[in-house]
Design brief:
3 domains, 7-stranded antiparallel beta sheet, Rossmann fold, globular, Glutamine Phosphoribosylpyrophosphate, subunit 1, domain 1, alpha/beta, about 600 residues, 21 helices
């Protein structure tokens, strides 16, 4: 997730771009840059760091022009650095980009064989090269962009400037957000509404495969075949603060609803369902060779990331048939674990700066283990230290309570489990095809669960008087019960505990009464009957029950539950993907109805960088 803004009009573009980028800094803050069409051609200024640093550079070496574009980056390919910052240039072409180019490696190798030189590690630079190559063949700018984009696969929202074309900017959108803002004698483009609100409240969201040719007086939108189309403008009534949150009341709610896109981005370029393959090009041949022969896996993390790790333990043992343990990093680092040179340690951290996880990873390397980081921040301490890193591509997460970072961690661990299964020969190609085909459906299925948000809000209202919540589940959904309880206590300050469903009768059932709510995760998998028997035990003790399950068990669940939240039926390994969002929404609505500070709950920090 990156921030894009472009301007063409009669004013100096630089201050408008800087202001727009500041409004989009929540989308990325690794680096920033601008490209301005000056009297001397396109001039680029960019830097690692936040927008304030770019602003100082432009103050010391000003640029002037009435056409320009800017970018604030959340790194996915290439560490944060000056050379990896946007905009990227090749020949006459300058581009900014939000999204992921899935086939950039193949394109880059082919372009390098033709003698083209690359100055960055990013996937974005490929876009500039393929468009410039079309221009060098003699294509006009619009046609060059159209032909160049046909060579790309993946998600992309781009703005393009071409040297010598002094009065036009070009855009294209596919699977990444992009809007145009209509002004008087000026027009703007951006990846999100906050960047344009100071100049116009009339916007048009681009749809997939929309091209646009934008001048100060006119915006022409065309479809993928070059036919001009009309999009109905929308009048925005949001305040600036509301706009930064996409119209949502809190960042946490916005991030919950971003999960379908976050999961799709995490899968992009990695899952090849028709071949039953997972491509993890980020891993070195040496690490892949080690994975093939590793005798065991040790997962370590803290908080929400630990719950993702527990889910990964189930998936890895089930699919790859390799012994796997998951342990909280603050415990692992203070004992003598059985880790050696035949152990793969998977360290999970959203920020890559979690102190206990960093220390546990370092200790593991000292014991001879190879380490693999699952992380959301490119260039973080954990990603630099580990032997390999898989990035979750969730984008910046502003809310302290993790949502989209968690579900993308689970996505990466599912991919890893299928990848390990292929390397170790534990799952047939036919079954891997099914596993990956089903995974590709999860963004759509998650989106389906989020359509029931208003119903979940009513469920939250129904249970506001409860003073304790138990979340129960079995198998791969037990870690999701732990995560559901953590979300609720983090932001609503209501006491909540997660338990394996079979453990209720070993103590906790003693405190169940009509002031308690039990949230039972009961999808229609092989453990449904066992979990349903626990629901019956709870109902017999007068506790209130919220069941989360599938419609094929509607009659049973409704009979024994006060409320039922229905989710799409999935294969068992993917149940966590559709059960997690409703639990996040339940926690969110309980907290919001209790009027707590959802985005910044008391006593908590986004990243725990000290013990």
């Amino acid at each position: 997730m990156c921030g894009i803004v472009g301007y063409i009009g009669d004013k100096n573009a630089v201050p408008i771009l800087i202001d727009g980028l500041k409004k989009l800094e929540y989308r990325g803050y690794d680096s920033a840059g601008v490209a301005i069409m000056t009297k001397d051609g396109i001039q680029v200024k960019k830097t690692i760091g936040k927008i304030a640093k770019l602003e100082k550079i432009l103050k010391d070496a000003p640029l002037t022009g009435t056409l320009g574009m800017g970018h604030t980056r959340w790194a996915t390919h290439g560490v944060p650095s000056d050379r990896n910052s946007h905009p990227h240039c090749s020949g006459k072409v300058t581009v900014v980009h939000n999204g992921i180019i899935e086939n950039y490696l193949e394109l880059k190798l082919a372009l390098e064989k033709k003698g083209r030189k690359f100055s960055s590690e990013t996937d974005t630079e490929v876009i500039a090269h393929v468009i410039d190559e079309e221009i060098q063949k003699g294509a006009a700018p619009e046609q060059a962009i159209r032909d160049g984009i046909k060579r790309l696969s993946g998600a992309l929202a781009i703005v393009v400037m071409i040297d010598g074309v002094i009065d036009t900017m070009f855009t294209y959108r596919k699977q990444s957000p992009l809007i145009v803002g209509y002004g008087k004698g000026e027009n703007l483009v951006a990846s999100d509404i906050p960047a344009v609100l100071a100049h116009t409240k009339t916007i048009v969201p681009f749809e997939d495969d929309d091209y646009a040719i934008i001048t100060r007086e006119k915006v022409v939108i065309k479809d993928k075949d070059g036919k001009e189309i009309r999009r109905k403008p929308i009048e925005i009534t949001w305040t600036a603060e509301m706009a930064e949150k996409g119209g949502y009341k809190h960042f946490m709610l916005k991030e919950i609803f971003e999960q379908p896109r976050a999961v799709a981005d995490t899968i992009a370029g990695r899952a090849v369902p028709e071949q039953g393959k997972v491509r993890l090009d980020e891993l070195s041949p040496e690490l892949v060779a080690f994975i093939k022969k590793a005798k065991k896996i040790q997962i370590t993390a803290c908080g929400t990331a630990f719950h993702a790790g527990l889910t990964g333990k189930y998936l890895l043992e089930h699919l790859a048939r390799i012994p796997c343990q998951a342990e909280i990093a603050s415990e692992l680092r203070y004992r003598r674990p059985l880790i050696d040179n035949e152990t793969l340690v998977i360290a999970i951290s959203q920020s890559g700066e979690t102190a206990d996880t960093l220390a546990a990873e370092e200790d593991a390397r000292k014991l001879g283990a190879k380490t693999l980081a699952v992380c959301n921040v490119v260039g973080s301490s954990l990603s630099r230290k580990a032997d390999g890193t898989l990035y979750t591509r969730a984008g910046p997460e502003i809310g302290v309570a993790s949502t989209k970072a968690f579900i993308t961690q689970v996505t990466v661990l599912y991919l890893l489990a299928v990848y390990f299964a292929e390397l170790r020969g534990t799952v047939s190609k036919e079954e891997r095809i099914k596993l990956l085909t089903d995974l590709m459906e999860t963004p759509r299925q998650i989106e389906q669960t989020l359509k029931d948000a208003s119903k979940i809000e009513q469920v939250a209202r129904n249970h506001l008087s409860s003073n304790i919540f138990f979340f129960i589940a079995r198998g791969v959904n037990f870690p999701i019960a732990l995560e559901g309880a953590l979300k609720l206590k983090e932001i609503s300050y209501v006491h909540a505990e997660g338990y394996p469903a079979g453990e209720l009768k070993h103590g906790p059932i003693a405190i169940l009464d009509n002031k308690a709510t039990v949230v039972a995760l009961a999808p229609s998998n092989r453990l449904f009957e066992k979990t349903f028997s626990n629901i019956e035990e709870v109902a017999a003790r007068s506790a209130k029950v919220i069941s989360v399950g599938n419609l094929d068990q509607e009659e049973l669940l409704c009979k024994k539950s006060d409320d039922v939240i229905f989710v799409p039926k999935m294969r068992e390994e993917l149940d966590p993907m559709v059960i997690t969002p409703p639990l996040q929404l339940l926690a969110y609505y309980v907290a919001d109805l209790n009027e707590t500070d959802v985005d910044q709950p008391r006593n908590l920090a986004k990243s725990v960088t000290v013990e």
